[in-house]
Amino acid sequence: MKYFIKKIITLIITLLFISLLTFTAFSVIPGDAAISKLGVDASPEAIARVRAEYELDQPVMTRYVHWLEKALHGDFGRSYKYDTMTVTQLLKSRLPVTILLAVMSFVIIVVIALPLGMLSARFAGKWLDVLINQLTQITMAIPSFFLGIILTVIFGLVLKVFQPGGYVSMQEDLKGCLEYLILPAVAVALPKIAMVVKYLRNSVLSEMKKDYVRTAYSKGNSVNQVLYGHVLRNALIPVITFVAMVAAEILAGSLVIEQVFSIPGMGRLMITSISTRDYPVVQAAVLYITSIVVIINFLVDILYQLADPRVRTA
Amino acid sequence: MDKELLKIENLTIGFPTKSGIHTVVDHVNLEVGKGEIVGIVGESGSGKSMTSLAVMGLLSEEAQVSEGSIQLNGQELLGMSREERRKIQGKNMSMIFQEPMTSLNPVMKIGTQVGESLKLHTDLDKEAIRGRVIEALASVGLRNPELLVDQYPHEISGGMRQRVMIAMAIINHPDLIIADEPTTALDVTVQAQILNLLKKIHRDTGSSILFISHDLNVIKEVCQKVVVMYKGVIVERGDAKEVLKHPKHEYTRKLVASMPDQVRKSQNTKKLLEVQDLNVYYKENKKLFSSKDKRKHIIHGMSFDLYEGEILGVVGESGCGKSTLAKTIVGLNREYDGKLEMDHLKPQMVFQDPFSSLNPARKIGWILEEPLKLKGIKDKKQRKELVNQMLTEIGLDPSFANRYARELSGGQRQRISIGLSLMRGEKLIIADEPVSALDVTVQSQILRLLLKLHDEKNLTYMFISHDLNVVHHMCHRVIVMYLGRIVEMADVDELYDHPCHPYTRMLFDSILTDEEKETTDSVTVNEILPETVDGDGGCPFYGRCRYAGENCLSEVPTLTDIGTPGHPHLVRCERIAYGEKYTAAD
What we know:
By secondary structure, chain A is mainly alpha-helical. Chain A is built from 13 helices and no strands.
């Protein structure tokens, strides 16, 4: 219980800090929300009116305090660009897509990387290991947005398996949506798979040198029994931390890939909002993503305790 | 009974290197009869562990067995397929490893690990296995085996883990148990218990034991027959007591006589170091949201003096605070109160582990020069000169300055550590277990070097060790520590002839001395000593004390001098304070 309270306090502090940071960042960078809304030809009066409406004429700290007061009541304000929508509505329509994409990428990573890593370690130095090593080397070197473009060209334009830019919304057709998201998910996942495979392989190999492995062999265990019965759980402990970092990176990675595959998720929303100086949207989006990352870390802590009894008692 | 269980013939093992095969085991012949305990003694690199791993089928893949045969119950083990060998491992033979800390799987429950060989080799169901595991844990003297099965290795002490290892080795009633340095990593008091336990198991089950150790006293204690290995070859074999009493081979003689002669007591009365009411603490991790400043009291009101030219021994079990004391004196721990006075001295320290205490990225010359730079000697030539001089003094060639620590053997590294501590010309050296990581014959060389330097440079040592034999030979005066307190302090001969504090006596009971001992069963197998608890009132040793009386629980004992004028003999025990003196018959 104490642990939970501690974690929640950390989360709150992090969110406060991040929100302040984004607020100040936007007050420092050049650009004006009013001008980008009304266009460069707008009259100074009109601009002044909009600025007053958005409180842009106030000092940063005053605005921040105002924003914070409202945000604490769950009101993140209205989008500057989409006047009719509240920020909350906007996020509600976009967030699920990004989360679905991230979850798909994550599942692909875990499902493919863990067996490959174990295989690579089991046959270390043999041809299978060399092959896996070469493949991971190559995929690691390709950035995911470029991979996305290649996948689009191959599957969209040559094989015509999917329609580039033909995103199907979740509400309309969940199956169609999943099918559309598979390629971007793979594009995000591939480089990360390579990293996880390498990490797991090295972790397993260093565990194999430990004394308890010799003990396990002395009892008559086979190689596979030692590997899966004794080594795997020990080897996974450092991998868990690594995978958590990957999970956070997936979120960042999906921002780019959404642009490449024109998926209407958080990433695209953020990019357009930044370029139109739609501060309330950016602010809220950043906070959402931060919370998700903090929550992931929290889950990892729990997972860590499940995997390692030594952490549990400490 | 005289049929051979294990028969090793002409066993030759080598490792391929750039310049051909490097042979580590050379035509070894060895037999272990049914119900016999055979010891292999030798230092690291002698091939004793290689031989045992070959029997167990655990050699690494690089190792090449070029010749020979290993037969268990008449069945040839070499050349067996992995599948065939698995049927024997954990069933007909099992192994007890040296490091109980690392040889158990940290994330697997103790019960699962102990029962694993039953799961692999029998058809017993879960419940039956659990029953057998509890039985085995109880038979090695572990308390509350029902609770233990669901615990993890990190939750129990080193001695208990070694018992768990032993339970694991005996659970399937193997014909042969291979024990590879099973007590080396343990405290002396625990060591004696484990050896007694092994002897009991041997008596009860009739299993044969192949016992590997570098410690002659341990071998003599346990084994009937012994073989001495040196550089991969068996140089001597025979009845254990006979071989160790009348060694024939030169190497065995060296092993047996590896204790240096004792030094003369210096008569100097100039105090180099004065410690008065020293209390030392460790700060515990400060938590973010707690204001309480937590610290752990490690050393309680220690007072002693160290005189110029003296060698003062400090003994005690791990966790008694002897290393903390050393660190505090050299200034590595500032959390203390009380008086700690020394005259313009910067005491230097020699550390236990010569492998990790030297910077691996720097050459020896650079490492030795560093203190000179700190001292402010700017002339490069002069520094080189001094380094060369020091290398010669510590018995190494000046060319060692161009080598890296990894190119050196353990003994050579420890020489460097000693040289390093002397570079600034300081007179007070704190040596924290300086030889315990080294082989026996190397140990004696390092001890001789320390004594030589002591004589030549009029050095003063504080010599911390858990090895009571070494302390006996090296030191003039000895402090016995228990839970951060001095429980006894006296001149070395007085202390070894008339140990008074029950704890000191317990320590001495557990060492295996050169003389034959009839009453080795004084520490019974089932006696698991209670965890050392630091109570608020009464004698801190109360829980483990054989002689404890009622008032020991309520009264905090003070140090009493029972020595003669000029030769104080301090003991912290209430019963001593009331004028009782234990006789040897106790």
